[in-house]
Amino acid sequence: MPRVRDSILVVGNWKLNGTLAENEARLASLAISASRVGERVQMAACVPFPYLYQAQQALRNTAVAWGVQDVSEHHFGAFTGETSAAMAAEFGATFAIVGHSERRSYHGETSTCISAKIGRALDSGLTPILCVGETLEERDAGETTEVVSAQLVEVLGALTSEDRSRLVFAYEPVWAIGTGRTASPEQAQAVHAHLRGVLTAVSTGLDQRPILYGGSVKAGNAEELFSQDDIDGALVGGASLVATEFGGICDAASRIHGGLANVIA
Questions:
Q1: Which of 24, 63, 84, 243 has the fewest C-beta atoms lying within 10 Å of its C-beta?
Q2: Does 172 participate in catalysis according to the annotation?
Q3: What CATH topology corresponds to 8-256?
């Protein structure tokens, strides 16, 4: 029997992009999209740290949440270049992306580090979005389920049951991030279903937490992805920088819940 979802969550990850002028138009577009998709589509933008204040000012009277793409594993102290979860929370941030493959690969983040970051985010009232995903080599070797299971279990094993229950999860196949390639809806659904099984084994009820799909999500493929039983939304990279694309993804989410008759340009 298909799962019943209360809402679909669509989160934009701006990565290392943006200027004050570009952001002004982009944030205004988010507010417009939120006004038409209805309450059953939750929208958020995870922006670079310097733009948190701009996001707060532009979105504070809208239905769009804002967040960050990483947090420090430390509360405070002599850690040059770090930004704490508490600092992000002071600007009204709601979400914090943690464990993204680019952080794991480029910055050598381990499961221990990621678990610590989740703890700091939760301490400050942020909702962590924990990312897992396999490389193309791992998928071709038939190791997808083993890789994503290990990434998930290693992090969750360091958290309390209560902390686990406050997470959002995201499956992002590394081979589909920024490449223009995307997992087919069937491939994505298969991994999401597997992850939900892993979550069930870790903690009772944890399988009810949202699992987002990320990896070249666009307006053209979003509706089919959201139609899958175990895909609860999207973590959107490049398309979140294009107003028509991100708006189209949110429109697709709304159509799944019957809240939008057709796309409004």
A1: 24
A2: yes
A3: TIM Barrel (3.20.20)
